[in-house]
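Human: Respectfully, please carefully check these tokens:
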Amino acid sequence: MLVSRSMKLACVLVGLATFSAAQSSSLCGGLPFDATCSTLLTACVNTLADINNPWANEACVAAATCHSAPINAFLAGLSCRIQGPGPNNLTAVNLPRVSDAVYNNVAGGGNITYDAYKNWFTGVALKADPGVQKLIDIAEVIANFDPILAWTGFCSTGAIPKQTFLDWFQYSSTVGGPATACGLIPPCLLHQYSVAFPYTIDLLVPCANEQSALSDPFSINVCVAAALNDIDGVDAFLDAVTCRYNVIFGTNNSVPASNTLPPLSVNIAQTSPYSQQNFIDFTYGTLSSLQASVRWPTSVDSVITQWSYILEWTNFCSTGTVPEKNLSDLLLYSHVLLGQTCPNSS
């Protein structure tokens, strides 16, 4: 069954924006949209020895730092996943503080800086699942650290002392800090539909790591797959890639206008025009080629629906196939989210 645009939006609005819509019906909430955070939460649930002492577990400490909701909300979800739905007896103020062993692993013998946090956070994720390496979104890692730094009041120094870091876990759910953000980087947004389909993010993040992702994205397989599957449209794709590219490469590039970029030069299949099956194979094949722990589409229907949007925009609903030139035109000139599927696809 094809998924309509309105159904996709409903999925996002029903759950928290940070949760995968494919799992938003879960009684305990969906997994985080970020691959690294999802890996850490899964590792936390699978390895936590004592539900009443979660901060002795590195994966749980790391997962709490990337959870967008307050600590008590994270603990409620954790309790639900481990003990099942029901009354949640975990509250941060009543739990043992982060253990010395975990803190020392984060800080490396001093205060906690962003670099120390990044190295520890990514290290814990890779220990849990080495396959997440290519999916680490450095922009999200910075976004995790920023509000912790702000709550603890150390925006000016960028270094959090031990007791203040431990206080964040214990009290940030109930006590406000001096600031909510330090503004370490401009927020790298993911648009409303993208968070509902994590496989699109798992295409976008590796694309942003490509040296020519801003100058010639449509010559790179993973960037083409990311752009064509970005339900929010090509401009949203380029915005998300540019923000991450600037963080990764230390640049300050503006978002390129799609119509100024070189045309599509990736072959979706051996011959054009391209069919729905070609698009499915290209999407799944590109995800597979990453050799990473990608989140696969929960159903091929989402890919089929996206192809129907492409068919409608290119005006090939009648044939069901799209010539390479027209697919290139879509990447260069469609700009915003594609508004309609073919008439028989709703």
The two ends are 9 Å apart (CA to CA). Strands lie at 112-113, 159-160.
